[in-house]
Write a structure and sequence with these properties.
Blueprint: E1 2-4, H1 11-14, H2 16-25, E2 27-31, E3 38-43, E4 51-56, E5 73-79, H3 94-108, E6 113-120, H4 128-142, E7 148-153, H5 158-163, H6 172-188, E8 192-195, H7 201-205, H8 216-223, H9 267-275, E9 293-296
Parallel strand pairs: 1-4, 3-9, 4-5, 5-6, 6-7, 7-8
Antiparallel strand pairs: 2-3
Helix pairs in contact: 4-6
Length: about 300
């Protein structure tokens, strides 16, 4: 199975001590976000956890644990955007994150690292030309240490519109200009350019990969594994081919405070949840309560151990 850590919160950025306590004890609990009394228990044994995927804006707190995670295949999607503190109030300095990616790359290999440049929105400050300029600067610095860049345009979820007044969809003409420029820059620096749930025809015309950011094929590319992935397990959004199930995080727990975030309702609720976090608890927020219904996840390794002639 693939264990996900970043669709609901930033575990490396805020809960690395808790995560490593879970690794050492060999299991973790997670609440169903829609039915909180339903709790799933996951084994963290390397015998059944084929890949751990980290999605984070701040991998720095996890760097000291990389040797301890050597028994797993890890995939890292690290977000670095061009936005300032008025948009991402608690994200660390981007230079520090770039330095962390260099360390990551030396430990896990550049093939296991994707840089995420998303979401893209346009404003008076963050113009199309500004995005193109910063994207090239970042490509120049990151290209020796990453395999690919994943970008997407902002989605106007209800939470996003409420927490980010005035944000607007990116126009089709601006989308085209950005995509065409990004593709040219990425090719120049030998960075694979991909999108996340963006299926406009012009992207295909520009030879940009729109197949998905965490598909079976991409997980095999990241890790070098052959995965025998059963049909029907692609737990993803409509139109998305990514394998995004088995997330051990919780919504409303990420402290970065990004205005565009879809995972937080409001920062007051985030602060309340963070106060109830116990690094020694088997569950991210609070503890197991009387009345919780705990079920053990059905887990198995999906690594295809049969070798073909192409593996010799």
């Amino acid at each position: 199975m693939i264990l996900n850590t970043g669709n609901r919160t930033d575990i490396p950025g805020y809960y690395s001590e808790w995560f490593m306590n879970r690794i050492r004890e060999g299991f973790v609990y997670t609440r169903n976000p829609y039915y909180p009394e339903l709790v799933t228990k996951y084994s963290l044994s390397p015998k059944v956890v084929d890949i751990i995927q980290f999605c984070t804006k701040n991998p720095i707190p996890m760097l000291k644990y990389l040797d301890e995670l050597d028994v797993y295949h890890t995939v890292w999607q690290v977000t670095i955007t061009p936005y300032g503190k008025e948009i991402e109030p608690h994200v660390p300095n981007k230079n520090r994150i770039i330095d962390a990616i260099k360390v990551l790359s030396s430990k896990v290999g550049k093939q296991a690292i994707a840089w995420r440049y998303d979401p893209i929105f346009i404003s008076e400050k963050y113009t199309v030309d500004y995005h193109i300029h910063i994207f090239e600067e970042m490509c120049k610095r990151l290209s020796p240490y990453i395999d690919q860049c994943i970008f997407s345009y902002i989605d106007l979820y209800k939470k996003t519109v409420r927490n980010f007044p005035g944000v607007q969809e990116v126009s089709l003409s601006d989308k085209k200009k950005i995509a065409k420029a990004f593709k040219s820059i990425a090719d120049r620096y030998h960075v694979r350019l991909r999108t996340c749930l963006e299926n406009d025809d012009f992207l295909i015309d520009y030879n940009i990969d729109v197949s998905g950011c965490s598909t079976k094929e991409e997980m095999e590319h990241f890790t070098g594994l052959h995965l025998h992935w059963p049909t029907g397990l692609d737990n993803a959004r409509e139109g998305c081919r990514c394998i995004l199930g088995n997330d051990i995080g919780s919504y409303n727990t990420c402290g970065h405070g990004c205005l565009y975030c879809y995972a937080n309702d409001d920062m007051m609720q985030v602060k309340r949840n963070m106060r109830h976090h116990d690094p020694k608890s088997p569950i991210l927020v609070g503890h197991i309560k009387k009345g919780d219904h705990i079920r053990e996840a059905k887990q198995e390794s999906f690594i295809d151990k049969q070798m073909t002639i192409f593996d010799y």
